[in-house]
Amino acid sequence: MLEEEERDNAPYDGPVDLPDDYEPEEEHDEAVGPSLADDVIALLEDGKTYAEAEMAYQKSRAGFAANRIKGAIAFGLGAFGVLHLALIAMTVGLVIALAPIVGPWIATAIVTIALVAIGILFLSLLKARIDEVRDAFSEDNHE
Predict the structure, then answer these.
(1) Helix (H) or strand (E) segment spanning residue 136
(2) Of the N and C termini of the chain, which has fewer Cβ atoms inside 10 Å?
(3) Spans of biased composition, class Acidic residues (predicted)?
């Protein structure tokens, strides 16, 4: 019994990374481990497995992102709609608030002219931004 324990506790000098089903060839007593061809085949199989796992991961990640983007677009459109309605309510409120002071027609004209002026301001800012982009991509940059 004592001899069995000593044998079980003896240090193991062989390779520890061999597959469980590996049996060395009996023809070559010199061969200690798998051949180079076996290692290359195992490496290619591992690479293929890794590539398949990475592809599946990226597909699931893209699906998740697409799903979240759809929700973000829906919430963005909802916010835009509500803000648009709020601006309409503000415009109507301004006309109603100015009507007792200057009359309904003049109040409508004041609010309309103010909105057109703000629209023209935004259009001029838009044109400036578009011109900057156009200048950045023009072939003859004048510095």
Answers:
(1) helix 104-137
(2) C
(3) 18-29
